Amino acid sequence: MVSPLLTDLYQLTMAYGYWRLNMHNQEAVFHLIFRNNPFRGNYAVACGLDTVIDFLQNWHFSAEDIQYLSKLKTGNGEILFPRDFLDYLGQLRFTCDIDAIAEGTIVFPQEPLIRITGPLLQAQLLESTLLNIVNFQTLIATKASRVCEAAKGEPVLEFGMRRAQGPDGALAASRAAYIGGCSATSNVLAGKEFDIPVRGTHAHSWVTAFADEETAFAAYAKVMPHNCVLLVDTYDTLLGVRHAIEVGKKLREQGAELLGIRLDSGDLAKLSIEARAILDEAGFQQTKIMASNTLDEYVIQDLKQQGACISVWGVGTHLATAYDCPALDGVYKLSALRDQDGSWNYKLKLSEQAIKISNPGILQVRRFFSDDAHVMDVLYDTQLGVPEVPEMHRVDAPTTRAKLPDYDASIDLLLPVFRQGELVIERESIHKMRKRALDEVKQFLKNYPKEVYPVGLETHLYELKQKLINELTTAKR
Amino acid sequence: MVSPLLTDLYQLTMAYGYWRLNMHNQEAVFHLIFRNNPFRGNYAVACGLDTVIDFLQNWHFSAEDIQYLSKLKTGNGEILFPRDFLDYLGQLRFTCDIDAIAEGTIVFPQEPLIRITGPLLQAQLLESTLLNIVNFQTLIATKASRVCEAAKGEPVLEFGMRRAQGPDGALAASRAAYIGGCSATSNVLAGKEFDIPVRGTHAHSWVTAFADEETAFAAYAKVMPHNCVLLVDTYDTLLGVRHAIEVGKKLREQGAELLGIRLDSGDLAKLSIEARAILDEAGFQQTKIMASNTLDEYVIQDLKQQGACISVWGVGTHLATAYDCPALDGVYKLSALRDQDGSWNYKLKLSEQAIKISNPGILQVRRFFSDDAHVMDVLYDTQLGVPEVPEMHRVDAPTTRAKLPDYDASIDLLLPVFRQGELVIERESIHKMRKRALDEVKQFLKNYPKEVYPVGLETHLYELKQKLINELTTAKR
Asked: Do residues A348 and A359 touch, judged by C-beta distance below 8 A?
């Protein structure tokens, strides 16, 4: 369970500030968005919400946490947080509203994955933890989706634990990789915690623990006749294939089958083609060839183009660490604050880079479909609403106003998750999230194999944003 | 606490195999090594041992773990692990010997960071977890060391949580970054768990929560007069500096000081030079300029070359995820197995790539010094020993035999940590590990700013390895 102390210190110093100034219960709206699709791709897969729910349901500062905070000092030795503030923190319970996009949904830059509405102090304290959870799991679900797409429906097994970024870097990666489309993980704890299928047979050390490879394979088949996938590259790959076949023949005498062999080094295209021929010739057409060794979506595509005879893909480091883009650039921005008179005051942060100017308001994302195909996503302010015939300014081309093409269906993506701190949504099974991701990505890539998908601000929201930018730019002169 | 189920399933299927074949108590030796220095650098900083100690001291399968394992099935629906094996696992306690290199020590490819000696089944089960812990923390300690070197002794604060790889990806990164040389972290939980100094003041949301920047800065100074570092780039950076100065003047009237300003966007070199001039002219020569925004060792070097007036460095994503090389390639290989007659049987795994052929034996690393300067590291087999005048074959040029230059001191790096499952070493403070890393890296880089440091196999070990390779290569023909 994640502690509320898993936050940046400045969240606590700001919380103290809000409390001292009696702003802590002012109603605030924050949104968690990311700015760029990872991996130079054209989509991401939302992930991490269930972990966020666990975190929020257990969110409170323990006596031990408060004790730790009471010892912190400023640079000149003064106590950082006075006792009365710590007493307040100690009794604090989570009372925010949370709206979020379901896990496994395809999402795009600038779209709020989570909207947090509630007392300014609480909403501020959640920032770092929510970003930590959602950034990473969304990143890995997206990577997994890309790898599974490259494998064209053949099973991808996630094997990344040994080089993942710490114990939870492995555990959360296994969860997100499954939601993104992987078939199973090697991570036993992830299997137990998240109900993910687990897979695995043996390593090189099994082979080296015996006098020779034939003995090692025979021993493995003896103890695991119904789970026999043999790793053939400890000494000489093709000789290993022949040794595996000998074992396969003995398995058949007992009514079992050699399920597969695994290649873990060398030229995987060449070796798999040669191994396939040797296996087929010996009557082992059903024995699968599995490959591993720093695979990712690019290597898998390349192997397929070379005609590799591989039908199960073990993907480790590059998936579990998102090696070529190991962080999603999610941010968490204040977008509205309720005044004492009850009216909303919309907020944004300026930047020289347009993409870094945050969106004001209380936002929702409406996704339009035509014949089940994605048409466009429109961000709108829930107070301004959406006109019958919406128009929008695309995020990637904001100066032109785009009309919505024909559509026959639409849904609002942000769903109520918490109301005043109470969970109001039914927890989903991980298998349902995975199916959502597989189905939606497949549908999406039919029409958008590489193109940028249209996402924009509804015109009234766009105009409001421009007005606020102008006011802020004028004010500071 | 890390569960023993945080392992790859194949470790458990192999464990079951060893147990079925009555090999589970055969004494085995494994070594954990990495193959390449990360970040195209010429060293790494060992890290993660204390986390490994916690894991091993609590290593046992709970009733819940066993319950989960009992439900696993093979592809054709048979139970994977029979009851008697699970009963055995349930009562198993850690009884291995562990020797390891102290955290904060500088280390090189092929050097065992950990040597595991004990029952084959136990040593096998530890593989994935030990790799997960040590790979990541060593990676991050090394990255932190490089970033701190670039900062030339100026404080580096680790700010990576929000984009780290999951909650533990953040927590373990904060620990390793501190050991590698960082001065503090923003991660409050890491501060509490590991006794690391924590730092932080406010974010953009503090500024946007107020009517304007002047009000926001004045409010912050009011509530945190002795911890006042103001983030000046929410709307317009240099205007923000002037607003900070106004607040600084009021702080002085109360006997406090504006400690610093923080820049988080834009051209950091140009803005910091201009901000410095504005601060100095206003009499705020002591106010420090801190910078953040996707910094790493390369950006810091570049900023220093451009004359940036920055003296505190906030480094986040690129440090906590080791962005340009997000995984260390550590492996864990069986190198010796004791026969039933009590003699050791040395083991290795072949590969077409020389660097992937593992080293046989029961290894130790001896580091030689001359006048406190590093001379060379020699891997030797503890049974073969080291001659008075050792010779070695360098890992990066194995065919030539190198004589040891003059030296005046030597130490063996692997220290006894566990004996038969009992901890035999005193736990070190994290501050001692950090000092070790800072001191040793500084000393090392004097003589090896970029060059490859000589590491080799002691000649007798090298010859033994060649003999085993020849035997295996001949045997398989």
From this structure: yes
- Of the CA atoms within 13 Å of residue B78, those in its CB half-sphere come to 11
DSSP state of A106: E
Percent of chain A residues topping a pLDDT of 90: 91
Predicted pLDDT of residue A389: 81
Compare CB distances from A326 to B8, B209, B323 and report the shortest one's residue: B323
Q: Tell me the chain B residues in contact with residue A132 when contact means C-beta distances shorter than 8 Å.
A: 161-164, 166-167, 169-170
CB contact under 8 A, A227 and B80: yes
Amino acid making up residue B293: N
Residues of chain B positioned with their CB less than 8 A from the CB of A136: 163-166, 169
State pLDDT tens for residues B163-176.
Answer: 999 999 999 999 99
- The per-residue pLDDT for B2 is 86
Q: What is the pLDDT of residue A201?
A: 86
pLDDT in tens, A161-210: 999 999 999 999 999 999 999 999 999 999 999 999 999 989 999 999 99
Instruction: For residue A351, give the nearest of B226, B227, B265 by CB distance.
Output: B265
**Contact list, B136 vs chain A (CB under 8 Å):** 163-166, 169
The predicted pLDDT at position B404 comes to 84
Contacts of A383 by beta carbon, 8 Å cutoff, 6+ apart: A344, A361, A362
The distance from CA A384 to its chain's CA centroid, rounded to whole angstroms, is 31
Which of B59, B86, B163 to mutate: most A Cβ within 10 Å? Answer: B163
Tell me the Cα Rg of chain A: 26
Minimal Cα–Cα distance from A459 to chain B, Å? 24
Distance from CA of B194 to the nearest CA of A (A): 12
Q: Residue A448: is it exposed, middle or buried by C-beta count within 10 angstroms (0-12/13-18/19+)? A: middle
pLDDT in tens, B91-125: 999 999 999 999 999 999 999 999 999 999 999 99
Residue A318 is which amino acid?
A: H
| pLDDT number for residue A476 | 60
Taking an 8 Å cut-off on Cβ atoms, the answer to whether A209 and B28 are in contact is yes
Residue B400 has pLDDT above 90, yes or no: no
Q: Residue A379 — φ and ψ, nearest 5°?
A: -85, 130
Q: Are B111 and B330 in contact (CB under 8 A)?
A: no
Q: What is the ipTM of this complex?
A: 0.96
Contact B301, B149 (CB under 8 A): no
A417 within 8 A of A96, measured Cβ to Cβ: no
Judged against a pLDDT cut of 90, whether residue A424 lies above it is answered with: yes
User: Global pTM?
Assistant: 0.97
pLDDT value of position B397:
84
Query: Cβ–Cβ of B352/A189 closer than 8 Å?
Result: no
Where does residue B388 rank: exposed (0-12), middle (13-18), buried (19+ CB within 10 A)?
exposed
Gap between the Cα atoms of A27 and A340, Å rounded: 10
Q: Which of A131, A208, A226 comes nearest B334 by C-beta?
A: A208
pLDDT tens string B461-475:
999 999 999 998 887
Q: Which residue, among A2, A5, A10, would best test binding to B if mutated, counting the most B CBs under 10 Å from its CB?
A: A10
The predicted pLDDT at position A47 comes to 98
Q: Do A205 and B348 touch (CB under 8 A)?
A: no
Suggest the residue from B1, B5, B7, B10 to mutate for an interface test with chain A (most A CBs closer than 10 A): B10
Q: Which of B2, B7, B9 to mutate to test the interface with A (most CBs of A within 10 A)?
A: B9
Alpha carbon distance B305, B425 (integer Å): 45
Q: How many CB atoms lie under 10 A from the CB of residue B278?
A: 15
Model confidence at B70: pLDDT above 70: yes
CA distance B37 to chain A (A): 15
Place of tokens 């550590």: B330
* A290, A263 Cβ separation under 8 angstroms: yes
Identity of residue A74: T
